[in-house]
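User: Hey, my collaborator sent me this sequence without any context and asked if I could get a structure. I don't really work with proteins. Can you help?
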Amino acid sequence: MGKKIVLVDDDRLVLESVLAALEASGYQVWATDSTEEAMELTREVEPDVLVTDYRMPLMDGVSLLERVKELAVAPLMLVYSATPPPPDLLSQRIREVCWVAKTSGHGALLGKLTDLLEGGVDAS
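Assistant: No problem. I've predicted the 3D structure and written it out in structure-token form, which is a compact way to encode the shape of the chain:
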């Protein structure tokens, strides 16, 4: 089976589109529009990668990644967002994360995932 990914985005259209692209590329994907459910899925599934939007209503993607780091599981982390997190925010709060612009398209996301899975965060 393919690598496991938990995907979280509050925009259902984006969520469904990215889900379809990831599954078509052979990944096993658990998708949700809820950061709380993403936490639960991460505990249950122990994914290889957590892909999250940055701007979401209840908790931003960086805060979600911080909470995930506290879990016993340690997935690679990728922020896929129209709005980049401020660079100083990432460097101060979470260093082990990659960012891909949604405007770059699914190809850029898939390429970054491949790089990340093959080489870790230094592939950013």
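In plain terms: Helices lie at 12-24, 35-45, 61-69, 87-93, 106-119. You can pass these tokens on to your collaborator as they are.
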